[in-house]
Design goal:
The complex is a heterodimer.
Chain A (H helix, E strand, L loop, with lengths): L12 H4 L32 H29 L9 H8 L2 H29 L3 H28 L6
Helix pairs in contact in A: 2-4, 4-5
Chain B lengths: L10 H27 L6 H10 L3 H29 L7 H32 L2
Helix pairs in contact in B: 1-3, 3-4
Classes of the chains: A mainly alpha, B mainly alpha.
Bound molecules: protoporphyrin IX containing FE.
Main location (chain B): membrane
Subcellular location (chain B): Membrane
Keywords (chain B): Heme, Iron, Membrane, Metal-binding, Transmembrane, Transmembrane helix
Chain lengths: 162, 126
Amino acid sequence: MSTTETTASGIGPVEGAGASVYTVDNPAPLIEPPRKRTKKSPKSTRGNFEMAAWLFMRLSGVVLVVLVIGHLLIQLVLDGGVSKIGFAFVAGRWASPFWQVWDLLMLWLAMLHGANGLRTVINDYAERPNTRLWLKGLLYTATVFTILLGTLVIFTFDPNIR
Amino acid sequence: MPAGTLYRGREGMWSWVAHRVTGVLIFFFLFVHVLDTALVRVSPEAYDTVVATYKTPIVALLEYGLVAAILFHALNGLRVIAVDFWVKGARYQKQMLWTVVGLWVVLMLGAIYPVLGHAARELFGS
Ligand code: HEM
């Protein structure tokens, strides 16, 4: 490919055909970038929600790798795997604020990350406005319920319940 | 398939499909998992009864599948992040996918004994 060679005017052979009609005294017209905001364009009525959501998926993803892989190691691999789990094991772990904070953070991040992911999936596949409304209503209800229930359980856990 | 497509029908598309399917599966599991853990607020017996069913061989197999889904989603998620933020990410997306798959296979082999060991002992005697 030899189309990258440039002429003296800085225009490639394809666009300028070797001899440009533009010179220092006759410069090319300035073309305004498309969709550039000017004084006349109306004020943006949208925030940057989708961009924030996009960024949140990536930031929460990085943190979740540590929280979730650590969780799997402790619950399923170390110390006999799933066999050791029971009320006593849970009581032992939630006796420490460190693991309470770990689980709380994991709960909130995973639920919000997963819910936002499902919102994307609904947006992609549900086409009728009513279907979208109901699916998202169901999703948000289940998400708020699960986050509140989980948070309540972590904070009100009582090892001497019996 | 249209000629010259870089994405459709190739590694990029299938890794996206797998990322989406695993993400949705994990979300549904998480919902159930918070409900079962909430039983610690009911009584130790209620919690231990439900967790006892998680120690059966069939559920052990489901657990292995869950680990497979989470590990793929986590590793491929890091790849997606690299594609978005690393200047050379898009150029190396294919190599990164095979790195993800390779790591995933190694980790899944390593998970066989810890996750499925107790089920094997129960089925075939220790
Ligand atoms: C373990 C660490 C995790 C990492 C690194 C991670 C990473 C990511 C990233 C980067 C995306 C965005 C993909 C895109 O925009 O194309 C994503 C999507 C998603 N994630 Fe995760 N994630 C993790 C854990 C989870 C968990 C625990 C859940 C479930 C509760 C989950 C559910 C989802 C869903 C449903 C999507 C949307 C998929 C789609 O739009 O196709 N992820 N993940």
